[in-house]
Design brief:
CATH superfamily of the largest domain: Glycosidases
Number of strands: 28
Number of domains: 3
Structural class: alpha/beta
Strand content: 15-25%
Radius of gyration: 27 Å
Strand order of the largest sheet: 12-13-16-17-18-19-20-21
Largest sheet: 8 strands, parallel, barrel
C-alpha cells in the first residue's frame, strides 16, 4: 500500500474516521493531549506502515485528512501528554489506542501485561510507566464504508406504546436450540430474523424485542482465566460495532457482520416487530485504575472517566465494574449521542434500554432528571423517534432513582417484580401494595405528565431467577459461575413449595404450575408496559442459577426441547385478551370515580362484594380481592372500545375463595386455573386456589 507523505488538515467533525472525497477524514478530541498520532497498519494489522501527527484544532479536537485511501484502512492512535496519575492523566504513547468511534474493529484481544500503561508488579504500582510497545497485539480500527441509512430505518413499524409488549432475549440463547432453525443460523443475528423465530414472536403476541447487549465487548480477565466468557455482554468496547460472535457469516469481516445485523432489523421490521437494544454507556472494559490502557484511558483519562475527588489517581466506581464514564462532560455526552444516533440511522433499531441509567444523569455526583445529557437527548431530531428505557439504579450515591427519569422515558419497575412475586408466593405483601403495582405504581410515576406506561412491569429478567426457577427453588444455585455461590441476589423472592428443584410430587408440581399461570396473567394484564423474559412463556429453567452471566451453555440457552406448549398457549390467550380490551392497555391513569366519557375507573372489591375499606386494606389475614374496571363510552363511537365492565379476581390462597359479583351478567374471559365454566351463575363465584380470573360484564 502506497500512503501519502503528509496528512492534510481535516474537518473537526464528525468524530471518528469518515471515508469521503477520495480519502478519509479523522477527528477525535482530547482536552489534555499534547499530540495525537494516527498510525496506519497493513491489512492484517500486524505491521505499522506510517505515522501522521493529527492537526490540533480548537476545543481540543484533533483532525486530519488522508487522501488516496478509503474503506478498509486499518489504523490506531497514540496520544502524547503528561503521565501524572495523581492528576488523573495517564498518557502513554507506547500504547496503541482504539478509536472510540471505530465502526469496525480488527484483531483479537488478549489480556497481556503490555496492554497496561504501568508496569505490573512495579513497587510504584499504577504510578509507574510501562514503555513496552503493544501495537502488535492491540485491537485496531478499520475504516468502514461510507454511512447509509439502514433498510430498517425505512420500514420501522412504529407500534403505539400502549400496544407494546416487550420480550427480553439473548440473541444466542434464544436461537441456539430453536426448532426449525438451520444449524448454521443457530444463535445468530440471521437466525433471529429466520421465519422460525419470527413465527414464535408473532404467534406469542409480543411486539418489541429487547436484545441483551450486542455491541462489541470483551470478556473480563477473571472469566478468561477460568475458561468462561461474559455471556450477557455487559462490557462494551466497540460502541459502534455489532459483536461478531453472533454473526452467521464471516465473523472476521466487520462489514459483513454489520450488514447481517442490518438485514436482521429490516426482516424483523417487515414482520411488524420492533428492536430495542440493551446498551452499556456507564463503564468500559478498561476497568479501574489498575486496568489496561486500550482506548479512552489513553486518549484522556481525566475527561472520559469519573475520578475520585480526594485522589485523582483512583477511578470512581459507581457501576461495580471498576470505572464510570463521565457523561457529564460535553464531549463524552456527544460520544454517547453519536453512538445512539448511529444505531438508529445506520443500523435501523427502534430504541434502547440503558444499563445503570442514573450514570447518564449524574453531574458532579447526584442524579438530576434535567441533567445536560437528558436535555441534549430530548432535543436530538434523530433520537426523537427512539424508545428510551432506563434501568433506574446504579451503585453510586443515591443510586436508586425509580420513577425519577424524564417524562418520555420508561423504567424497569423492580417494585412490581418483587411485590407481585411475594403476593402470589404468600410472602407478606399487602393487598394495597399489590393493587398499587397492578395499576402502574402511581406512587412512583403519577407526577408531571408521566403516563402509566412509563412503568415497565416484569416478574423475571435476565438478571435473576426465571419464572420456572423462582417457583421451584428457594435459594440460588450459582456454583457453575465459579464464585462459590457468592454472586447473584441473595434475597430474591422465591419459593420451592417443599422440595428444592424438580419434584416427583404431583401436588407440588401442580401448585407451581397454577402459580406460574397466575403470575404470567398478572404481568400481562397489569396497567403499564409488560416485559416478558424469553423462555418464561414455556417454563424455561436455568437449574436454579439466578446470575447466569457467564453461562454460554445449556444453562444460559433456552431449553426448547422441554418447552411446555400449554403454557405457550396460555400466554397467547392472555395477550389476545390484552389486545382485545382497551381497558387492559390503557394509557391514562385510572380514575377512582365513575369514568368520564373515554376514561376508565377502577374500584377494588373485597370477596364479599363491598368496596375495599381501610380495615380491608390492612387485613393481613386476607389476600384475595378483585378490581372492577368500568368504561364510559365516548359519544358516537362504535364497538371498538371493548367491554364496558371487567372484573379481575385474584386468589393467591391455597383454597377456593367465594366472590360475590356485582349486579349484571358476567362471562369468563380468562381463568388461569382452567376450572370455571364460561357463563358465571348468579351466585357467589368460587375462584379456584392460586388463580386469576377475568370476567366480562354487562349492565344489569
Amino acid at each position: 500500500m502506497k500512503l501519502p507523505e503528509r496528512l492534510h488538515e481535516g474537518r473537526a467533525e464528525p468524530f471518528g474516521a469518515l471515508a469521503r472525497d477520495g480519502g478519509v477524514n479523522f477527528a477525535l478530541f482530547s482536552d489534555h493531549a499534547e499530540k495525537i498520532e494516527l498510525c496506519v497498519f497493513d491489512a492484517g494489522g500486524a505491521r505499522e506502515l506510517k505515522r501522521y501527527a493529527l492537526h490540533a484544532g480548537a476545543d481540543g479536537v484533533f483532525h486530519g485528512f488522508l487522501d488516496s485511501v478509503g474503506p478498509g484502512l486499518v489504523y490506531g492512535l497514540r496520544a502524547h501528554g503528561p503521565y501524572a496519575p495523581e492528576r488523573g492523566h495517564r498518557f502513554n504513547p507506547h500504547k496503541l489506542l482504539l478509536d472510540p468511534w471505530a465502526r469496525e474493529i480488527v484483531g483479537r484481544f488478549g489480556w497481556q501485561a503490555e496492554h497496561h500503561g504501568y508496569e505490573l508488579g512495579h513497587p510504584d504500582g499504577t504510578r509507574s510507566l510501562d514503555a513496552r510497545d503493544n501495537a502488535l497485539t492491540a485491537l485496531k480500527a478499520r475504516v468502514a464504508p461510507p454511512p447509509a441509512a439502514a433498510p430498517g430505518w425505512h420500514n420501522a413499524p412504529r407500534i403505539p406504546l400502549r400496544e407494546q409488549v416487550l420480550y427480553e432475549l439473548h440473541v444466542k440463547g434464544f436461537g441456539k436450540t430453536l426448532p426449525g432453525l438451520p444449524a448454521a443460523l443457530a444463535g445468530t443475528y440471521a437466525g433471529l430474523a429466520h421465519p422460525a423465530a419470527i413465527a414464535h414472536f408473532k404467534a406469542l403476541g409480543v411486539t418489541t424485542l429487547e436484545l441483551l447487549p450486542v455491541h462489541y465487548h470483551l470478556d473480563e480477565p477473571g472469566l478468561v482465566d477460568q475458561g468462561l466468557v461474559n455471556y450477557w455482554g455487559y462490557n462494551t468496547l466497540g460502541f459502534f460495532c455489532p459483536d461478531p460472535r453472533y454473526a452467521a457469516g464471516d465473523r472476521n469481516d466487520p462489514t459483513a457482520v454489520a450488514e447481517e445485523f442490518r438485514a436482521m432489523v429490516a426482516a424483523l421490521h417487515a414482520a411488524g416487530l420492533e428492536v430495542v437494544l440493551d446498551v452499556v454507556y456507564n463503564h468500559t472494559p478498561e476497568g479501574g485504575e489498575q486496568g489496561p490502557t486500550i482506548s479512552m484511558r489513553g486518549l484522556d483519562n481525566a475527561v472520559w472517566y469519573r475520578l475520585a475527588h480526594d485522589d485523582r489517581s483512583r477511578s470512581e466506581n459507581w457501576t461495580g465494574c471498576g470505572n464510570t464514564l463521565n457523561v457529564a462532560h460535553p464531549r463524552v455526552a456527544q460520544f454517547v449521542l453519536d453512538s445512539l444516533r448511529y444505531w438508529v440511522q445506520e443500523m435501523g433499531v427502534d430504541g434502547f434500554r440503558f444499563d445503570l441509567a442514573p450514570v447518564l444523569g449524574r453531574t458532579h455526583q447526584h442524579f438530576h432528571a434535567n441533567a445536560p445529557f437528558f436535555t441534549a437527548l430530548a432535543q436530538d431530531p434523530v433520537l426523537a423517534r427512539a424508545q428510551l428505557i432506563a434501568e433506574p439504579w446504579d451503585t453510586g450515591p443515591e443510586g436508586y432513582q425509580l420513577g425519577r427519569f424524564p417524562g418520555r422515558w420508561l423504567e424497569w419497575n423492580d417494585k412490581f417484580r418483587d411485590t407481585v412475586r411475594r403476593y402470589w408466593l404468600h410472602q407478606g405483601v399487602s393487598r394495597g401494595e399489590f393493587a398499587r403495582r397492578f395499576t402502574a405504581s402511581n406512587d412512583l410515576f403519577h407526577h408531571g405528565r408521566r403516563a402509566p406506561l412509563a412503568s415497565v412491569n416484569f416478574i423475571a429478567a435476565h438478571d435473576g431467577f426465571t419464572l420456572a426457577d423462582f417457583t421451584s427453588f428457594s435459594r440460588k444455585h450459582n456454583q457453575a459461575n465459579g464464585e462459590d455461590n457468592r454472586d447473584g441476589r441473595h434475597d430474591e423472592p422465591a419459593a420451592n413449595f417443599g422440595v428444592e428443584g424438580p419434584s416427583p410430587d404431583p401436588i407440588i408440581e401442580a401448585t407451581r404450575g397454577r402459580l406460574r399461570l397466575a403470575l404470567l396473567a398478572t404481568l400481562l394484564l397489569a396497567q403499564g408496559t409488560p416485559m416478558l423474559l424469553a423462555g418464561d412463556e414455556f417454563g424455561n429453567s436455568q437449574q436454579g442459577n439466578n446470575n447466569a452471566y457467564n453461562q454460554d451453555n445449556p444453562i444460559g440457552w433456552l431449553d426448547w426441547a422441554h418447552a411446555d406448549p400449554a403454557l405457550i398457549a396460555f400466554v397467547q390467550r392472555v395477550l389476545a385478551l390484552r389486545r382485545a380490551e382497551p381497558a387492559l392497555h390503557h394509557e391514562r391513569w385510572f380514575q377512582h370515580v365513575p369514568a368520564q366519557p373515554g376514561e376508565r375507573s377502577v374500584v377494588w372489591l373485597a370477596p364479599s362484594g363491598h368496596d375495599m375499606q381501610v380495615h380491608d386494606w390492612h387485613d393481613g389475614g386476607q389476600h384475595a380481592f378483585a378490581c372492577r374496571i368500568d368504561a364510559s363510552p365516548r359519544p358516537h363511537e362504535g364497538n371498538g372500545e371493548g367491554c364496558r365492565h371487567l372484573l379481575i379476581a385474584f386468589n393467591p390462597e391455597p383454597a377456593p375463595t367465594a366472590f360475590t359479583l356485582p349486579p349484571g351478567d358476567w362471562h369468563v374471559a380468562l381463568d388461569s386455573s382452567g376450572a370455571l365454566p364460561a357463563l358465571v351463575p348468579h351466585k357467589p363465584l368460587a375462584v379456584p386456589a392460586h388463580s386469576l380470573v377475568v370476567l366480562r360484564g354487562s349492565d344489569p
